[in-house]
């Protein structure tokens, strides 16, 4: 059994499971203490009904229960507006949770995104996981319907770490289903079929039946 603390950071409710749901479930099954941080309330710029904020929180908790993780933390910053929020304020939300949990491993958004909230969370994660925090490993995940939609001369998400989630694909897909407001019909990237297909494709790249792909941001190794 492992005893690491893992933090998965997402800008919006559902980012955490889309990017790292299978890996979260695998960490939890191994005995790691796994937490999710949702930085924004995920609602104000997409819906007119503020009551959906609480619905999204309930969905996030249901998703976490299916994945078997410890807790979900909420930052409550404005949805789709992080480019207007001072950088230090986004930093503070992530720094607070990092200080409380002292995670060993952090998963966060990739900077190679079309979503500006995702980019802001990546930038602030780098600040919040400076060497003095004790975080030993930071990885960036891909977000279906966001990382895949960059184009032209924009830098693309590049995978160099693959986590075998062969036994956890259904857990990830079932957990994502808790986000009823975010589920789409195939062939949209946020559909059950597409999520399963992505896991198979990423797995075949690394010799696994199924995988999630990450980009290593940095790793601090004290002893070899």
From TrEMBL:
One of its GO terms (molecular function) is hydrolase activity. Its EC number is 3.5.1.-. Transmembrane segments: none annotated. Keywords: Hydrolase. It is an enzyme of class 3 (hydrolase). This is PIG-L deacetylase family protein. The lineage of its organism: Archaea, Methanobacteriati, Methanobacteriota, Stenosarchaea group, Halobacteria.
